[in-house]
Write a structure and sequence with these properties.
- This protein is of the alpha+beta class and about 180 residues long.
- It has a single domain (about 10-175), classed as Alpha-Beta Plaits (2-Layer Sandwich).
- Helices cover about 35% and strands about 35% of the residues.
- The chain has five helices and nine strands; from the N terminus they run βαββαβαβββββαα.
- The chain has helices spanning about 20-35, 55, 75-90, 150-155, 155-175; strands at about 10-20, 40, 45, 60-70, 100-105, 110-115, 125, 130-140, 140-145.
- Strands 1, 2, 3, 4, 5, 6, 7, 8 and 9 form a nine-stranded antiparallel β-sheet that branches.
- The longest helix has 20 residues, at about 155-175.
- It is globular, with a radius of gyration of 16 Å.
Length: about 180
């Protein structure tokens, strides 16, 4: 019989994208009030790997990834997704979102994303929020799975996740 242990603390991350780059900073400010100090910013990146969001958001989308200094309990990711949905609604106009916020967490072993959409590879967490293993860390890099979004598979994204993982590793060594 295996011994039950507490899961390691996880690094809360968020992907934020919008057509209006001024909303990036406004969104960050709101998120930091709820989740604390932001300890990593990717900088603004073109979000052009898909046209899926063009009808709702328009073209020329910009994205950034951020992470938060305070580590979280992985079982609480659903709370972050409910809050980020409320923030998206706050910025919406004419029933269309103007900002998209995708929360997730990073561990030494993987990258997990939260979703409101059920699918075969997602597991229900709480209150209609699901989680999926989006990337695994293997052979000193993040590797995509069959369902990993193309933008998360990019070399640039993998470099960002690796930098955030390095921050996490430093934090875990200090505990």
């Amino acid at each position: 019989m295996g011994k039950i242990t507490k899961p390691q603390a996880a690094k809360l991350i968020m992907s934020i994208f919008t057509q209006d780059v001024t909303l990036l900073k406004k969104t960050e400010n709101i998120l930091s009030r709820h989740f604390g100090t932001i300890d990593f910013h990717s900088g603004v990146i073109d979000f052009s790997q898909t046209q899926y969001y063009e009808e709702e958001f328009g073209k020329n989308l910009k994205r950034e990834f951020i992470s938060f200094k305070k580590l979280i309990k992985s079982e609480n990711l659903w709370k972050a997704k409910i809050l980020t949905n409320k923030i998206e609604e706050r910025f919406a106009k004419n029933h269309k979102r103007r900002v998209n916020i995708d929360p997730g967490y990073l561990t030494q072993a993987n990258l997990i994303l939260a979703s409101t959409k059920m699918f075969f590879h997602r597991i229900h967490m709480n209150k209609g929020i699901y989680q999926e293993v989006t990337m695994i860390y293997q052979d000193k890099t993040f590797k995509p799975l069959a369902w990993t979004y193309p933008d998360y598979q990019s070399k640039e994204s993998i470099e960002i996740f690796t930098k955030i993982r390095n921050i996490l590793n430093s934090q875990l060594k200090q505990k």
